[in-house]
Write a structure and sequence with these properties.
Shape: globular
Structural class: alpha/beta
Oligomer: single chain
CATH architecture of the largest domain: 3-Layer(aba) Sandwich
Distance between the termini: 70 Å
CATH class of the largest domain: Alpha Beta
Number of domains: 4
Radius of gyration: 24 Å
Strand order of the largest sheet: 2-1-3-4-5
Helix content: 40-55%
Number of strands: 16
Bound molecules: 1,4-dihydronicotinamide adenine dinucleotide, iron/sulfur cluster
Strand content: 5-15%
Length: 510
């Protein structure tokens, strides 16, 4: 009997380890031969732990599984099991996706290089090694943009590093996924770590780098363990090391663990941290592409950008660019969270409207109450009201509504949300996480909290002060932390002014 129980951190948090243990114990009790795979998560977090059992070559799903319900999996065909879901690939959540970056996540044993290759792994690296001069053009033509949030064209970044002349170049993977409500980097690393290694190796061949680093946040212990094991296995198999896949080219990777600062997800801060310095933002220029790690040309890319590269190299730029809208080509792994019925990871081509994402895919709120707001793009992203839910999910389209796609975190709030409190949270978050280098962010965020507290106490005369402060932070901050904190604040103020004037109105009425 072949059974999959996710080893993904979200599934484990929901009891997957106890389920796996129950599966082992039940098979032993019955004397049944068992192959138990701890796969990644399929992304349907509300069904975790989602157990899969192979029946006639088809993976049948059961969930959310409990240890008590495990014996039933061993009886009959399991179709009449109370937690039976049917073939996993045919579930509506799975069938409607376009899984390119996440094609293997949840499918394979994350640490089996053989399974990785059997499912198309390493095809991209082989193609890259066969025509190294084509890589940058291929990535540029695919339209791939930085999936960390800024959306800068990946091919142009790589071309800058490739053109730079230096005795040493580096590939740095930014896996310091700090945005609240995002988990795609973690899920990818825990579910398919070899695809990240392959993407980094392709980047190395493209720009002439021989060393790479994966900067992983300390809050992801499972991802750290899986990534370190995968790097070791890739080295043993000759995918990394002095002679990558027999090409004569050298490339190796080190996993480095951060220490819990949100700002270390900002690339220059990350580089400082990687160099053993305090994680403080550096002024740009110089850009890391020219002067990055140890002052050398460095590709700094998010996990998802690098993990998408193998698919593009294996299938061609045109196949990737065929998906999406406008300048947002390809697919994006949406992370749907907050007060939502069906939360999880959903990879789909750019272009769905927020309404399709929140109501269609997410199924509305978990509380059953009306949706009041959706925050798009992490804690520094704007809040969208239902009136703007026809906005298509694309970089320019979301920016056109004063928002940002960011790392594609989508957090849902019902009508009990207090948008003034959410605005205060943004300023407080910025004050806590500020690196302190520039004044608009260091001082502005603290003053922002105070100003919002005065508004909350009924002093609506402070609203223009808050608006002015947001303007100063947005245009005067050195990096996106201080520069983007005004997005949630101003969107809350613009779309829900009543939440900011409620106290004053109440006092006037009394
Ligand atoms: P940015 O716009 O300054 O830079 C984007 C990237 O393009 C950088 O890597 C930069 O070095 C590179 N670049 C710019 N010009 C270049 C050129 N001529 N040649 C080569 N490379 C060039 O944006 P930044 O500050 O790096 O990122 C901000 C974004 O980070 C925000 O949009 C936010 O959504 C996102 N973010 C993501 C988080 C996460 O958890 N993934 C957390 C916090 C913020
Ligand atoms: Fe540091 Fe904030 Fe300035 Fe960024 S905006 S450099 S986090 S003080």
């Amino acid at each position: 009997m072949r059974v999959w129980v996710p080893g993904d951190a979200a599934a484990r948090a929901l009891g997957a380890d106890a389920v796996a243990e129950a599966v082992r114990a039940e098979a032993a009790r019955r004397g049944e031969a068992l192959t138990l795979v701890r796969n990644g998560s399929r992304g349907m977090v509300w069904l975790e732990p989602l157990v899969e059992v192979e029946r006639d070559g088809v993976r049948m799903g059961f969930g959310p599984m409990t240890p008590e319900a495990v014996p039933g999996l061993f009886e009959g065909e399991g179709a009449d099991h109370p937690l039976a879901l049917g073939p996993v690939e045919a579930l509506p959540w799975m069938a409607a996706q376009t899984r390119l970056t996440f094609a293997r996540v949840g499918v394979i044993d994350p640490l089996s290089l053989a399974e990785y290759e059997a499912q198309g792994g390493l095809a991209g690296l082989h193609a890259a090694l066969a025509a190294p001069d084509r890589i940058v053009t291929e990535i540029t033509d695919s339209g791939l943009r930085g999936r960390g949030g800024a959306g800068f064209p990946t091919g142009i970044k790589w071309a800058t590093v490739a053109r730079a002349s230096a005795p040493q170049k580096y590939i740095v993977c930014n896996a310091d996924e700090g945005d609240s409500g995002t988990f795609a980097d973690r899920m990818l690393i825990e579910g398919d770590p070899f695809v990240l290694i392959e993407g980094m190796a392709i980047a190395a061949v493209a720009v002439g780098a021989t060393r790479g680093f994966i900067y992983l946040r300390s809050e992801y212990p499972d991802a750290i363990r899986v990534m370190e094991a995968a790097v070791r296995l890739a080295r043993d198999a000759g995918v990394l090391g002095p002679d990558v896949l027999g090409s004569g080219l050298a490339f190796d990777i080190e996993v480095r663990v951060g220490a819990g600062a949100y700002v270390c997800g900002e690339e220059t801060s990350l580089l400082n941290s990687l160099e053993g310095k305090r994680g403080i933002v550096r002024a740009k220029p110089p850009i890391p592409a020219l002067e990055g790690f140890m002052g050398r040309p460095t590709v700094v890319n998010n996990v998802l950008s690098l993990a998408t590269v193998p698919w593009i190299m294996a299938h061609g730029a045109a196949a990737y660019a065929a998906h999406g809208i406008g300048l947002s080509r390809g697919t994006m792994p949406l992370q749907i969270a907050g007060n939502v019925r069906h939360g999880g990871l959903y990879e789909v081509a750019f272009g769905l409207t927020l309404s399709e994402i929140v109501e269609g895919i997410g199924g509305g709120t978990a509380s059953g109450r009306p949706v009041k707001a959706v925050q798009v793009g992490g804690p520094l992203g704007a809040y969208f009201p239902p009136a703007l839910f026809d906005t298509p999910f694309g970089y320019e389209e979301v920016a056109g509504q004063e928002g940002l796609v960011g790392h594609a975190g989508i957090v849902v709030f019902d009508d009990t949300a207090d948008m003034l409190a959410q605005a205060r949270f943004a300023m407080e978050f910025c004050a806590i996480e500020s690196c302190g280098k520039c004044t608009p962010c260091r001082i502005g965020s603290v003053r922002g909290v105070e100003t919002i507290d005065r508004i909350a106490a009924g002093d609506t005369g402070m609203i223009p002060v808050l608006t002015d402060l947001c303007h100063t932070m947005k245009w005067g901050s050195l990096c996106a932390l201080g520069g983007f904190a005004p997005y949630p604040v101003m969107s809350a103020l613009t779309h829900w002014p009543e939440d900011f004037t409620a106290r004053a109105a109440q006092e006037a009425a009394e």
